[in-house]
Amino acid sequence: MKKLAIIASRYHLEISKSLVKNCLKTLKEKGVAESLVDIFWVPGALEIPLVAKKLAKKGKYNTIIVFGAVLKGKTYHFEQVANECIRGCMNVSFKFELPVIFEVLCVYDLKDAIERAQGTSDNRGVEGALTALKMIELIGKI
User: Fold this and answer.
1) Looking at residue 61, which CATH number applies to its domain?
2) For residues 15 and 34, what is the distance between their CA atoms, to the nearest angstrom?
3) Domain with 110 in it
4) Overall number of domains in the chain
């Protein structure tokens, strides 16, 4: 196994920290050594795709997992950030044929983000880790 990269947004930092913590815990439970995971913190969700592209170009990662939270406000900004972040991540995935596991929470209120970052039934940090491992295995078979 090469390495996994995690990119996390500092915007809504407590949400991102929880997602990363749950992801790392799950990876460790599945036998992934901490030394195989690199974490990169970016200012916000719009910075995620550029860092993902730079990491993908290095060719040393089997997958990239991205975390953050974009909350709906009173303006169109929510849609712009959410749409461009996911589009950028998908472009990286397709261009470099590398799984970019998208766990940036695009939600309508903070309560929804907290439930998905800290809860036990739909924890997106856990899901990000599990999806990354499944994709590494699948891509390895192709």
Assistant:
1) 3.40.50.960
2) 21
3) 3-141
4) 1
Q: pLDDT digits over 39-96, tens only?
A: 999 999 999 999 999 999 999 999 999 999 998 888 878 889 999 999 999 999 999 9
Q: Which of 10, 60, 77, 134 is catalytic?
A: 77
pLDDT in tens, 111-141: 999 989 997 778 999 999 999 999 999 999 9
Does the active-site annotation cover 12? no
pTM higher than 0.90:
yes
